[in-house]
Write a structure and sequence with these properties.
The chain is mostly helical and 176 residues long. The chain has seven helices and no strands.
């Protein structure tokens, strides 16, 4: 029987289909992915809880969580590799501290326990991961919170004078 292109393609095609069928029916390990996604979700919830603990809501103030500050900081973290590495290390530290207090992650802790961990991070040695993460996220949380006009409502701040500005730039403000 002569070897033709058609016969080669048929053999190759059927072999490819057999390999794909074997691969498709191969047992997959779904459990580690589920554990990874659960751990990632716990860390993300811990990060959001951290930001909410830094700038909490009050009776007349929406707080960082309601203003979407955690999402804005996450964007910054994604753009800066050093900030991302710091965040990963700090979230590991947060999980360790939460487990030491009997919680299943920082987000699962009571407010008092969260505040105690934030205080411990603030009081840690300068240059340490907890202290650096505390300072970086506090600075970013305050910036993004108070840059949002919704935070100004009960502060008595009407906003910047620009773009309306002062009518006459030659006269100082408040003088007629």
């Amino acid at each position: 029987m002569p070897v033709t292109r058609r016969r080669l393609l048929a053999v190759f095609g059927s072999s490819l289909i057999a390999v794909l069928a074997a691969w498709w029916s191969w047992p997959r390990k779904a459990e580690p992915r589920k554990v990874e996604s659960t751990a990632a979700a716990r860390k993300e919830a811990g990060f959001r809880a951290w930001i909410d603990t830094l700038v909490p809501a009050e009776a007349d103030f929406p707080g960082a969580a309601a203003l979407g500050v955690a999402e804005r900081i996450r964007e910054l973290i994604g753009e800066q590799p050093a900030y991302a590495a710091l965040t990963r290390a700090a979230l590991e530290w947060l999980d360790e501290r939460a487990r030491a207090q009997g919680g299943d992650g920082f987000a699962a802790l009571a407010d008092e326990d969260r505040q105690a961990i934030v205080s411990a991070a603030a009081a840690s040695a300068p240059g340490s991961t907890p202290r650096t993460f505390f300072q970086a996220t506090l600075d970013d949380a305050l910036f993004h919170t108070y840059a949002d006009e919704r935070a100004w409502l009960n502060l008595g701040y009407a906003g910047p004078p620009q773009p309306i500005g002062f009518p006459d730039p030659q006269r100082p403000p408040g003088k007629a």
